[in-house]
Amino acid sequence: METAKGSIKQAWPYQKDKMNLPVADVEAALPFYETRMGFRVVTRHDIPYQSAILDRDGIQIGLAENGGEPTQDGCFFEVDDVETAFAELKANGLTKELSDFSRQKYGETEWNVFFVVAPDGLCYCYGQRPN
């Protein structure tokens, strides 16, 4: 039986640029994003440094060997169903990197959220507005 998949509706970077998220080694980072998080590589570049653009559900992010600090960056993903997204990540083999669910308020909006820390150090928050 195939696991249900949650859809990413939007992505906002923690810092400046979701298309330029810092990693030490793009090639080493890619398998996690493809096998665990369900992204696919769209393009790769060597100039001005190694980078890759990833896509999932029409939402793109970029990983780049740009000298930035991964532990200080990542993205907030708005998803259509936070519990389905959580179950999908677990079915894809993600274990200790997952946080429990919590409710957080950003501005005037409340979200049901959980966090994933990638092996490269980038942090991702998956969130859904409560119904």
UniProtKB/TrEMBL annotation:
<protein>
    <submittedName>
        <fullName>VOC family protein</fullName>
    </submittedName>
</protein>
<dbReference type="InterPro" id="IPR029068">
    <property type="entry name" value="Glyas_Bleomycin-R_OHBP_Dase"/>
</dbReference>
<dbReference type="Pfam" id="PF00903">
    <property type="entry name" value="Glyoxalase"/>
</dbReference>
<dbReference type="InterPro" id="IPR004360">
    <property type="entry name" value="Glyas_Fos-R_dOase_dom"/>
</dbReference>
<feature type="domain" description="VOC">
    <location>
        <begin position="15"/>
        <end position="129"/>
    </location>
</feature>
<dbReference type="InterPro" id="IPR037523">
    <property type="entry name" value="VOC_core"/>
</dbReference>
